[in-house]
Specification:
By secondary structure, this protein is mainly α. The chain has a three-stranded antiparallel beta sheet with strand order 1-2-3, covered by helices on one side. Strand 2 and strand 3 form a beta hairpin. It is elongated, with a radius of gyration of 20 Å. The mean pLDDT is 85. The site of zinc ion has 6 residues, from loops.
Length: 150
């Protein structure tokens, strides 16, 4: 679980509660960091720290957590990297590329991965179903998209 605590600020404005530093710290374990990498983020207000900690834990639980350092990368960039890793059959690669070109790139290709919310993904799925695709097909597209993130 993420840990939240407050650091007393030493600056002169802290006593008057007008200091602009961020005394609330959140420390959490990066699920991608196999050697137990810990990350720390600071906030001005306690509820901001709590919201962030809750969000990280939820995202980790549902597998949508993204390392903050990675979140500025474009979907297209992450996608190409994912495609280049591992050994896949040419037919599998062709199928993934087709899914990307037709369904992922037009919606997410030019976006940073950190800007893509679970709401965006839900709407993306709903849009495909509204366009007449079978739920199983839409789910397959979702699995491909998700795999590229992980
Ligand atoms: Zn301060």
């Amino acid at each position: 679980m993420a840990k939240i605590w407050k650091v007393d600020c030493a600056c002169p404005k802290a006593k008057k509660s007008i200091c602009r530093h961020k005394p609330w710290k959140v420390r959490y374990r990066d699920p991608g960091g196999r050697v137990g990498k810990q990350l720390e983020v600071s906030f001005k207000l306690k509820n901001q720290a709590e919201d962030f900690a809750g969000k990280v834990e939820r995202e980790k639980a549902v597998g949508t957590y993204i390392d903050p350092k990675q979140s500025g990368r474009l979907m297209e960039d992450v996608w190409n990297e994912w495609l280049s890793i591992g050994n896949r059959e040419p037919s599998t690669l062709a199928s993934y590329r087709g899914v990307y070109r037709k369904h992922i790139e037009p919606v997410f290709g030019g976006r940073t991965i950190g800007s893509i919310t679970s709401q965006d993904i839900a709407e993306w799925r709903a849009g495909q179903e509204a366009a007449g695709l079978a739920p199983a097909t839409v789910h397959r597209h979702y699995v491909v998209l998700k795999a590229a993130f992980i």
